[in-house]
Amino acid sequence: MAEYTFNINKLDSSTVSGGSAIPKSKEQLVDKYTINTLFAKTSDKLEIHAYTLDNILLTSNHNFDKYSQLLNAAGAGKEGASNINLDPILDAKDLGYERGDVRLLYNFLDNLYSDAKVASKFIITEISPDRTEIRGITLELPDETVINITADLKSKLLNSSYFSDYKLNFLQNRLISVVNIDTLPVDDGISVVFKLNQPLPTTFFVDDTFYVEEVVSDSVYFEVESVLVSDVIKLPKLKGPNFGVEIDDDATNSTQFYNYNELFSYPVSNSYYELRSLFNENSAQISIDHTDYSSFIHFSSAEERLRNFKYKLDLISSYENSIDIINSSSYAAAGVSGSKEYYEGLIKGLVDNFDHYDNYLYFGSGSKSWPKTTTTKPHQVDTTSATGSWLNAQLITASNYDATNFDILINTIPTYIRENSNNEAYLMFIHMIAQHFDNLWIYFKAVSEKYDSDNRLDFGISKDLVKDAVESLGVKLYAGNQTIDNLFATFTGETFNTGSENIVSMSIATSASYNSGSTALEHLQPVSKNDYTKEIQKRIYHNLPYLLKTKGTERGLRALINCFGIPEEILSIKQYGGKLISSSRFFGPESYTTTGSLDKIRLDNTGSIITGSTLSLYTSITDKVKLYTDDSHRVDIGFDIARGTNEFIDATVSGSFDIDEYIGDPRVAHDKKYELFNNIGRTVVAGSWNWEDITDQWQDADFNWNDVLVYSRSPKAFVRLLSFFDSALFKTIKQLLPARAKLNTGAIIQSHKFNRSKVQQVSASIEEPNYSVTIGTYTVTGSHGGVFENSSSYNYTTNYNRTIVTPLGRAPKNITDESIQLNGEFSGSFVISTDGEVSRNNPFLNLAQPNISFDLTLFNLSLPLPPACIVALSASFQGNYFVGYSTGSEGDAVSGSIQLTYPTSGAISDNRVSFTHNFDTYQFFSLEARENYGNAFKGWYTQFPTGSSANRITTNEVLTIYYGNEATYGNKYYAVFDP
Questions:
Q1: CA–CA separation, 258 vs 265, rounded Å?
Q2: Which end of the chain, N or C, is more open, meaning fewer C-beta atoms within 10 Å of its C-beta?
Q3: Strand residue runs (E) in 855-917
Q4: Range of the domain at 884
C-alpha cells in the first residue's frame, strides 16, 4: 500500500473568506493593531471548510470540535483560551481526504444572538433596491431579547475603540460583513435591519436564512500537500531451521476417503450383517460373558429375549427367501412392497437394531450362540429344524434362570394380573422396559470391573475403554499399521488376501483370549484387527506396573515386546560400546545383545572373579589401561537388514582380525576410501568365495545360505516381512527408554561391517588475489530531439512552470530549457474532443435573448389593484428531438419495424419512433430495423423518397448516431424495406 508524507503551507485566507469588512480604499484611514481575544468552547464555534487546490469548496463542518486547548492557554480569570491546537493533517484525513492535496479554512465565530453553540436563525424579509440593506426577523427569540441584544451590538459598534467584525453567516463559508445594525418594528413584531459594507450578492433572496455572528479571530487557511513515499524494496530472508518443533508420533496410516454410501455400498446379505450392526452401535462395547445369563440379565426375562431373537431370525429368513424368489424371477420393480430393495431395507432395519445379546446369538460361534452351518466367517445361521433341540434345551436353561431370578421386573406385577391372558400386551411391555433397564445396568456394573485384571479380551475392563485407562496412567498408545485393511478384516476378521502372490502354506494367528469357554470352531477363526489391537492394549494395561517399575532397563523393554507377541529370537535389543578390545574379530564399538540391566557394570582384575562387594579396598574403579570401548547412548531395537550378512562375516573372518590395523592410518588421510580394508571385504574367504559371490552367486553356493543370510537375500522380502509386524510397538518403546538414549527402531537400513565410509581430508591453501577495473563515465543530455519542427509557430513546448517547497516556503521554479518533463504532459498537448455545444448551426443560438418583463393587472373591483409584479421564466435543456420512420422503397405501406435500443429500449413500431436524446449524458443512440413477413431491409436513409444511394447512411440493420453525425444527417432517419 502506498504511503504519503504531508507538508503544511499557510495561505492567505482572504482568497476564499472575502477579506475585511473595511474597504481597501479606506484601510489607510484606519489603524490596525492586535487584540488578544479568548475562544470559549461553550459559546464560540469553529468552522472548517475543505477546498480543492483551485479554491473550489468541497465540504463544510459548521460545528467542528476536533481541536485541543494548550495547557497554558487559559485566560486569566476569564472563560476561554488564547491558544488552541489545530492539526490540519489529521483533520484532512477525518474529512475523507487521506491522501491530502486539499486546503482547509478555519473560521472562529461567536453567535451574537445565543449564549450557546446552538444559534438563533434569521429569515430575510426585505432587501433594499441597492441590496446594501436587508431586514430580517427571528422566530426563536422573544422581542425583548432581540431589542436588548441589538442595542448592545449597536452600542459596541459605536463606542468601542476597535471595529467589531459582524458577519451574516449564510453557511458554506458565505459570510457578509455588517457595518451597522438596528431594530425596526413591523406588523409581525420586531425586525433587525443590517447595513452591509457591500451589496448583497444576487444569489441571495427573500426567505433565505442566516446567522448573525462575530469574528473571534482571523481565519486561517492551510494547504495540505501530499508527497508519495517511494516503496523500500525489502528482500525476503529465509528463516533458519526450527529444531524445537515437536514431531507428532501419533500419525496414523491414512486410507482412501469414503462417504457413508461408499462404505456400505455392498449388497445386503449375511456376509455383511455383522459389520452393519457394529457401525450402528454408538457406545463402548462392554465385556460381557454371554454364556452366563447373570452377567447381562438382571431385570428382564432370559426366556423372553431368546424367543424374541427367534422371532427376528424367522423374519430375516422370510425376507431372504423373498429376495431369492425375486432374483430368480428377474423382478426389478422399485419402491413397492415386493421389490428387492424393499426386503433388503427390512433386513437392514432388523440387523441395525440388534442389541449385544442378539449380536452374540447371530454372529458368535460359541456353544451358547445360535447354531451355524459354516466353520469360517462369515457364519451362516442355521434355520433348519435341526436347531429345534438346541433351542428347546436353551429355553429350559433360560426358564430355570428366570425362575431363580428374584430381581426380574415382572415379579413386581400381582399374580392375578400375570395369570390373566388378556394382559399379554401389558406383560410384553414390562419385558421391554426390563430389557432397557438391563442395558443400563450392565454399564453401571462395568464401572466396578475397570480394575479387574482379567487378561482376556471380553472379560474385565471393556476393550473399548482400555486405551483411555492406559493413557490416564501416563503411557501413550499409538495406532499402528494394522488399521489400513478393509472394514471386514478390521472389525469382523477376515482370512489374509494373498492377491497375486503364490502362497503355498499359511498359518492363521488367532487370539489367545478365546481359550476359556470357547469351542474348537472358534479357535480356527482369524481375529479381527480391531480386537488384535485392543488385546495388545489389554496386555499393556495389566503389565503396566511392571513396565513402569523396570522403565529404562532391558527387562522392561523385553516385557513390552512380549506384550506384542514377538519372541527374542526375532527382535533383539542391541546396545553399543563396552566391547572388549582384546576379543577376537574386533570391528570397533559394535553392538551386543543385552542379557540384563547390569550388563555394563564390569569388573576386570587379571581375569579372576572377586567375591563380595564390588566397591572394596582391594579393587580400584580407576583403570589407566583401556580394555573396553567407550559406551554409547545408541540402542537398536528393530529389524536390521544387514544382520544376516554380519553373521556370515563373523562366521567366516579370521579370529585374529583387528580393524585398527586397517583404518585410522594418517598416511591415507587424503584418500577417498580405505583400500586395504575394502580388499579384505572383497575377499572374505581367502582363495574361495569373495564378496561378489554373496550378492551374485548365492544360489550356486555349496553351503546353506539361509542359515546366515535370511535377511539379506531379498530387500523386498525384508520390507514385506515388516508389514506384518505392528508398527505401534516401535513408537511405544520410546517411552520406556532413558531420555539420553539414541534409538534406532523399525526397519534399520545400514551397511555391513566391511562397508566403512571415509571422508577425504581437505587440504587448505591461502591465496591473496588483487583485482582492478576501469569504469567509463558518460554525460547524456536530452531534449525534444527535433520532434516539434518549430515550437514557436506550433506552440508545442516542453517548458512548464512548477512550485517547489523551500525552507522559506513555496517558491516558483520555471523550466525554460526545453528539458523533458517526466511526470506531466506537454504544454499545449491537451486536446478537447468537444465543448458540449449542440446544434452549432442554429442561427438563433448565439442571439442575446432580452429579459422579458410582464405587468399583470387584476380586474377585480371589490379589491384594490395590486402593484406590478415580476414573472421570472426559466428553461432547461432536455435534449435534441429525433424521429425514425419505417417505410417501403416506393413509399408504399410495405415496411418492417424499428426500435430504439440505446440508451433505453423503446417499443417496437412499424410506423415511426420519436424521442429526445442528450449527447451530454450519452455519447450516441441506436435504432434497429427488423424485417417483417419476408420484406428485405435496404438501408437507413436521410431523405424520403430515397432517390439514389447518396442519401443512404448505412446498410446495417443497427443505426448508431453520435454527436458529430447530427450536423451531417439531420434528425430524421428512414428505414427502407423492399417487398
A1: 11
A2: N
A3: 880-888, 897-902, 912-917
A4: 880-978
